Amino acid sequence: MDGHSITMLGTGLIGDFYTNTLHSQRGRDRVRMVYSRSPERGAAFRDRWAIPESTTDLAAAVNHPETDVVVIGLPNFLHEEAISLVAAAGKAVLCTKPLGRTAEEARRMLETVEKAGVFAGYLEDLCYTPKSLKAVASVRAGAIGDVTWVRSRETHPGPHSAWFWDGRLTGGGAIVDLGCHCIEIIRNFVGKGNRPLEVLCHTDTLVHPIADEDNAVALIQFESGAIGQFEVSWTFRGGMDLRDEVAGTHGTIWMNHFLRTGFEMFTTGGGSGYIAEKAETSAGWLFPVGDEVSELGYVDMFSDMFRAIDEGRAPQETFYDGYVVNAIMDAAYRSAKARAWEPVELEWRGGSTPRIASTPELYERQVVIKREVLPDGRQKLILKDPTSGDFSDRVIEAG
Amino acid sequence: MDGHSITMLGTGLIGDFYTNTLHSQRGRDRVRMVYSRSPERGAAFRDRWAIPESTTDLAAAVNHPETDVVVIGLPNFLHEEAISLVAAAGKAVLCTKPLGRTAEEARRMLETVEKAGVFAGYLEDLCYTPKSLKAVASVRAGAIGDVTWVRSRETHPGPHSAWFWDGRLTGGGAIVDLGCHCIEIIRNFVGKGNRPLEVLCHTDTLVHPIADEDNAVALIQFESGAIGQFEVSWTFRGGMDLRDEVAGTHGTIWMNHFLRTGFEMFTTGGGSGYIAEKAETSAGWLFPVGDEVSELGYVDMFSDMFRAIDEGRAPQETFYDGYVVNAIMDAAYRSAKARAWEPVELEWRGGSTPRIASTPELYERQVVIKREVLPDGRQKLILKDPTSGDFSDRVIEAG
Amino acid sequence: MDGHSITMLGTGLIGDFYTNTLHSQRGRDRVRMVYSRSPERGAAFRDRWAIPESTTDLAAAVNHPETDVVVIGLPNFLHEEAISLVAAAGKAVLCTKPLGRTAEEARRMLETVEKAGVFAGYLEDLCYTPKSLKAVASVRAGAIGDVTWVRSRETHPGPHSAWFWDGRLTGGGAIVDLGCHCIEIIRNFVGKGNRPLEVLCHTDTLVHPIADEDNAVALIQFESGAIGQFEVSWTFRGGMDLRDEVAGTHGTIWMNHFLRTGFEMFTTGGGSGYIAEKAETSAGWLFPVGDEVSELGYVDMFSDMFRAIDEGRAPQETFYDGYVVNAIMDAAYRSAKARAWEPVELEWRGGSTPRIASTPELYERQVVIKREVLPDGRQKLILKDPTSGDFSDRVIEAG
Amino acid sequence: MDGHSITMLGTGLIGDFYTNTLHSQRGRDRVRMVYSRSPERGAAFRDRWAIPESTTDLAAAVNHPETDVVVIGLPNFLHEEAISLVAAAGKAVLCTKPLGRTAEEARRMLETVEKAGVFAGYLEDLCYTPKSLKAVASVRAGAIGDVTWVRSRETHPGPHSAWFWDGRLTGGGAIVDLGCHCIEIIRNFVGKGNRPLEVLCHTDTLVHPIADEDNAVALIQFESGAIGQFEVSWTFRGGMDLRDEVAGTHGTIWMNHFLRTGFEMFTTGGGSGYIAEKAETSAGWLFPVGDEVSELGYVDMFSDMFRAIDEGRAPQETFYDGYVVNAIMDAAYRSAKARAWEPVELEWRGGSTPRIASTPELYERQVVIKREVLPDGRQKLILKDPTSGDFSDRVIEAG
Q: Which chain B residues are Cβ-neighbours of D283 within 8 angstroms?
């Protein structure tokens, strides 16, 4: 049962989540070395998670002789440099979301790892939440028919660290921070081979005194006809709202990953301690989650990554996926500026997906628009005359 | 305690809902005469609701000597003729939604009633749901600060009557049927004096073999900067989904009017009978509502209408509101065609609304982007240097 | 459309709820006179609800020449005197819950109205919530098979008025205040002709420095074998929790009447005003209800009462029902003292109800304990050998 | 990162759950050998979970030279024999719930492992659900004040295997199957050092043609005054209902572990496959859970067990806990028979717990029963005169 020995780059909130996940339960993989730009934060992180070593030397961290996997939990503008170092070291690299600040940057990172021939995983945790994994499997098994519309929503009152707010370092605002999650969730439901064609996006800065968007909504048109809709905000009040809704021709899926998961607590405020990520209050009605790293997908994400390394296969989320996400975000920003639909520009590796289509049912040479079962068991048909275009009702016996 | 004597025009589902509401509980208003294009449906309706008379003569119904109020529950393409007759008769007129098929048609109806000087109410029930009324009052009282975004969603598997599916008779598809509700709900939350400037809309026909849209999503830009977002569908599976979500600078409101209201039933299917509007199944887990006409706003809507008549004041929802809704829907259809934002063209009677704005807080000459309370009681500030545009964190003592 | 003219006795919270209901929407019944022990509270109530007159003279209020119905919203210890006066006046009397402090007192009031031959209604609002009415109708229609267990729960942080806390004036603690609701809800679901045989009850005073119980749980054994379970508390934190759960042989019903009804609001606390009965906070996550008097059953309750008067029939909830409730509460107190089951002592007017029973299905001369459908469509039977008493599994083809 | 090598005894549903958990994610512990009474079931299980060996020889399985931990997933009547074998082998033993069929049997097993000096863990998964672990931690941190009442509910339509239905093999019915979970959940919330004194229980066989109870409800009186209430049923319709509710003097916790966890799916039935444990339907509205073995506590349970072995400490759930649970169940059965409270007879190793008590607050020499904040900021006090016992209201300024 040999595990992996890991170099962790970065000691922010995401580094904590990653290491907490890796070191939790009966995991066999361990962080061996941690890199931080600050010696103090590095030492504190090392002690907090019982890691043997910390350093402020990025190259030394990447090239640590005992580690075979490097996890990148650094701010967006530092991904490219780190990935180049890891590729040069010939180690497996797992990079946090978003992959790049732009599709162009992401494409370069993709080329780097492909040239080097190293394993590269895209750490998109929210595609791995237990609910999402089961829901995607149900969709694949046909439980809701053809997917027509996927809504993914991620909102909270704004990030905890300063660099998130600086578009020069991140590539944008709430879309780059949160929309990247939503886009990849949507792709998992409509199918990764389903080409994203165009994007229609609106962005606005409604509350915070910043240059980048603190609210955005966008539509993605896929080749099958399915629509992906994402909603992101840094101005939501009440905690962190993570919901996905999938509509199909024969069913519906609703998932709430965080703020309403069957755990409710009222307190007059006597206790203390951490409630949940982005929680706004510590008294009144609170809505914790059970096991945060499990509910947010970190556990299943790392299992997939390390198993993929062990099995010599690609993980569910690859650098190519990260590149597609960046390409869609680029189109979103262009659309918001153009105030109109904009094409998604990307080097497409997926195949072609046919249009959602059904041969309309006929009844006595009329097109059946809808069937309803009446309380007495008979059926009501709504019919369209293909010649005149007129609509009519008809009640018929069952069968 | 004198009530009103009513002529009801139309005997479809909406006529049943209206009359059920008027004749329920201890109401003092009664339907005296009902008009139907079909004598059989008219007679059945008359008997079902214990109404003294039915007729197939529209003018006779409107001019019945004992009624003082006429309620229009007819298909869209018959509204204008009916309103003209009622205006000529000098009676109060209450017209179902949408007012017209286009803003131009709605404007003519508005002129008709204004010239005749008759009371005219727009029967927009979903603006009167008990939850909406209380939520709007909370918003007015400042409970969530400035409204930034309102999402209103109405979806179900498609209408019950044939004429709904014929865009020639209705003016469109799911937008005209359902979007009109959402638009007016949104206006109640952002404020009716808040001018709708532009609309961005996407429509698609994903499932039904019809010419008009069975799915649509749109954004409405209001003068204050607030965004209204509506989502409508005739392809939703699982019942009828009516949800409104309001985001403000200091709070959030979530309302579920139909499918998740605290009433859940599992049945192996032994019972029988009506479950709820647009319910799809009669076995398994079902989600009825308690008092449907109350939860859907009909009770409060008619109370407001008849009180407004008695008190000589305008009701909450007027023909002018109906006209604004049509103008926004027209812009939505133009936008969907143009694939870009389109202006709302209307004769604006509201005033001007200032932009949502707050003077940014300063801390030692830096702009405060966000304040977070840490577990130990201290505060973490995210600051922006107004000169360099750089962001930084600062932890300070509380106070 | 003639309504009724009412004398209202009492100006506490319940008087407000009653009058608010009667004067709301398009109701045709009006309070004509209000009685209060305090002239100030009487005058304030009169002005609040636009009532023509108030008085401190109980007999004058009851005998007001223009009223034909008297509503009693007085503390428990004043019910008997008021009912005697109304009966002597020959008017219809509607009395709030609980009818008496003991079954003996309730029996005397029942005799008083029966001797006088006046209409007497028991104002048990929670049996009339829209959800309950629809759920009871579903149960009657067979939707969940035979009722096996009914749980009714009513808890909050304690009453608002001093007299509620004084067992000498009320007859007890949380059972008398809240359990009376639960018992009658349970009776509506198991059937009012289903005789309550025995009660097992536990009471405790866990938080408040009072002599009576602030927490209780009880089981009621009905003749059919069905169990009623009620849970009441004056120490619940977080608002008012009103839930009913009904288990049947073929289904389940869950109802939440107050704290989770599809209306959720987060506020940082900027707004103001009344949130909901027994709400504990005005910031953070709040859970208002839409139309409180409708959701709590007051609207349907008064509709039934006044219609029953108009139609010369008994209402759904009668003084006899109030007497049965008191008899069950008496048994509960005796059981809590005896720490064992105690019989319900009452003059039973209902009939006899057969035991819930089903003839066990047989499969090859074995008793079928359970059938499960396997994923492959086959069925798994759990069988019991009637001779040996041994259990075994068997997988068979469907059909 | 060395893990443990395990002998698994039993190949039923629980063996699947256990092995699924152990072999999932990045776990470092592996099942090395599986024992089944049936060679076919053993081989199938072995192949399903990629286990090296299976056997029908219990002693050989226990004494496998490479395993150091034995997990018992056998029917209740086989626990004692298996535990004796493992103790003799000197290996760590982890036994499924309930430990014994009676307290006497459980006490013997406890003695066996204590005499042998082997590690012994009680596999009570539902005490380890992520929500429960976080909730217990919140309670310990004081978030809800003193615990006053804990309700734990576990119900479903009945077990999948024949032996569960045979009280001779299990020790009883739904209490032995499900109540054992609830009792230990309750103990975790009230504190394990809080002695259970007495039990009041009602059992009934309402639906299934069996000799043991298919429904039961019970109260457990703890030394602190706290009440534990458990509700179990084998006749619930709609899936598996797992809910825990904790009431405290300053707060409330509600947990739903299974049927309402923020994952909702509607399907017309086209798909296929496993939905969730005890699910009753595969069409209509379904409520899956995300990661079943995580949500049901198996992951955290095994982590605690193996860490405890590695660290040489006791696990959270020990054989002594299993013995206490049996003692409480024995008292429940005695109480149901006696129809009255019965003492819990057990060898108590915990200490003594003081009665929940608070010194009543005084205001001008009167006892404060309740404080309410009024909308205008003033406070309303309900006071009790300690001499007369009379209650009164008083409104005072805040502060």
A: 281, 284
Summarize the confidence of residues C234-252 as an average pLDDT: 96
Taking an 8 Å cut-off on Cβ atoms, the answer to whether C285 and A287 are in contact is yes
Chain length of chain A: 399
Between B165, B225, B235, which is nearest A391 by CB?
B165
Residues 6+ apart with CB under 8 A from A368: A360, A361, A362, A381, A382, A383
Q: In what order do the strands lie in the sheet with D69-72?
A: D53-55, D30-35, D5-9, D69-72, D92-96, D120-123
Query: What was the ipTM of the complex prediction?
Result: 0.95
CA–CA separation, D251 and D315 (whole Å): 29
How far D236 CA sits from the closest chain A CA (Å)? Answer: 20
Amino acid at D40: E
Nearest by CB: B204 against A168, A227, A380:
A227
D275-D277-D278-D282 Cα dihedral, nearest 10 degrees: 0
- Structure tokens given for B383: 């600051």
pLDDT band of C274, cuts 50, 70, 90: low
Q: Is A172 left (phi over 0), alpha (psi -120 to 50) or beta?
A: left
- In this prediction the pTM is 0.96
Does pLDDT of C134 surpass 60?
yes
Secondary structure of C243-299 in HEC code, one letter for each residue: EEEEEECCEEEEEECCCCCCEEEEECCCCCCCCCCCCCCCCEEECCCCCHHHHCCHH
CB contact at 8 A, C218 and C230: yes
Mean pLDDT by 10 residues, chain D (399 residues): 92 96 96 97 97 98 98 97 98 98 98 98 97 96 95 95 93 97 98 98 95 97 98 96 97 97 90 67 89 96 97 98 98 98 97 86 92 81 92 85
**Pairs of residues, one from chain B and one from chain C, whose beta carbons lie less than 8 Å apart:** 188
Tell me: the pLDDT tens digits for D305-332?
A: 999 999 999 999 999 999 999 999 999 9
Backbone angles phi, psi at D124, to 5 degrees: -100, 85
Contact residues on chain D for C370, CB-CB shorter than 8 A: 157-158, 208
Distance CA D285, CA D229 (A): 30
Going along chain A, which residue ranges are E strands?
A: 5-9, 30-35, 53-55, 69-72, 92-96, 120-123, 147-155, 196-204, 215-222, 227-233, 241-248, 251-256, 263-267, 284-286, 342-343, 362-363, 366-373, 379-384, 391-396
Helices A13-23 and A39-48, axial angle in degrees (round to 10): 30
Q: What is the pLDDT of residue A155?
A: 97
Contacts of D63 (CB under 8 A, 6+ apart): D85, D89
